[in-house]
Amino acid sequence: MQRDDMIKQQIIKIKKEKSIFIIAHYYQRTEVQEIADFIGDSYAMALAAKKAKEEKILVAGVDFMAETAAILCPEKTVLSPEPMATCPMADSVDIDEIKKYREENPETLIVSYVNTPASVKAVSDVCVTSSNAEKIASKLPPNRPILFIPDKNLADFIEKKIGRNMEKYPSFCPVHARVKTESIRFCKEKYPQAEVLVHPECAPEVVKMADYTGSTGGILNYATHSPKKSFIIGTEEGIFYALRQKRPDAEFILAVDELICPNMKSITLEKILYSLENEETVIKVPEDIREKAFNALDKMIRLSQ
Ligand code: SF4
Question: Pairing between strand 195-198 and 146-149?
Fold first, then answer.
């Protein structure tokens, strides 16, 4: 038996014995997705954590995902197999700057992408994910200015969708920024029959060239129902695991070689096994921050209905 298979068997045994629910993001390694009880994008992961009947949850994703589960489910134990797996875009937000902005601009609604630390969510009016940002932004009062934190590319995409200007925090995802117009043009020339599906964290000029732009869940849904059999994918390569399951008949081409988030990939089977065995690392958010961050996340869930 291969080493990975042995670890997988141990993980499956322990999670069952200890009744620990494993939630993984689509960008996780294939072998991690294989042992997960639930796989989804950030929004689906948040809902799955909330709905889980188990009292213990292990989140295979970057730190803000485990934090989100801890904010939404204070009664549950939330484990992270690798608390050092961070998101550089989330970490780029200067919380002092946002607090100052909040004081100076009380009339502005602060809309935070879920890819933010708990402290930023705590000073936000509402959170969004890439799968519900358009719906939520379109429901916000039209007479209030909006500051969107931190992804300027997602903000640009939403602005165009809802026809409303927003002030944008000047950050972006370094992984999706690797998808360039030249790479899309090259792929389209090589695979002229293929549809181009990209994530809204890609640059606006890339989004303009796409047949479809949406969250990882949205891309998966689009490819599942499209009559086409060939797709150029502009998001992290971990999504190929789910794409191939949904469309075993189709061909998927990554828009750029090695479009990989190293932070997502820092979670391994070994780390998950250690985390389950030792019930480490427990993610906790200080209660004063958690309560405020909960309000922004809860509003997101209500406005997504
Ligand atoms: S893919 Fe981008 S936004 Fe997602 S965790 Fe990695 S760096 Fe952050």
Answer: unpaired
Quick one: which atom of ligand 1 is closest to the CA of 262? 6
Q: Which domain range does residue 221 map to?
A: 176-254
pLDDT category at 1 given cuts 50, 70, 90 is confident
62 C-beta closer than 6 A to ligand 1? yes
The alpha carbons of the chain give a radius of gyration, in whole angstroms, of: 19
134-167 as b/e: b if 16+ CB within 10 A = bbbbeebeeeeebbbbbbbbbbbbbbeebeeebe
Q: Is the CB of 236 under 6 A from ligand 1?
A: yes
Any domain includes 259:
no
Answer yes or no: is the C-beta of 261 below 6 A from any ligand 1 atom.
Answer: yes
pLDDT in tens, 22-55: 999 999 999 999 999 999 999 999 999 999 999 9
User: What distance separates the 2 farthest-apart alpha carbons in the chain?
Assistant: 63
**63 and 207, same domain (yes or no):** no
Q: How far apart are CA 85 and CA 232, in angstroms?
A: 28
Q: How many domains does the chain have?
A: 3
- Nearest residue CA, atom 2 of ligand 1? 173
130: CATH: 3.40.50.10800
Range 61-87 average pLDDT: 97
Could you tell me if the CB of 179 is within 6 A of ligand 1? Answer: no
Query: Candidates 62, 235, 256: which one to mutate for ligand 1, based on the most atoms within 8 Å of Cβ?
Result: 62
User: Are both 166 and 225 inside the same structural domain?
Assistant: no
- Phi/psi at 150 (5° precision): -110, -5
Q: What is the pLDDT of residue 229?
A: 97
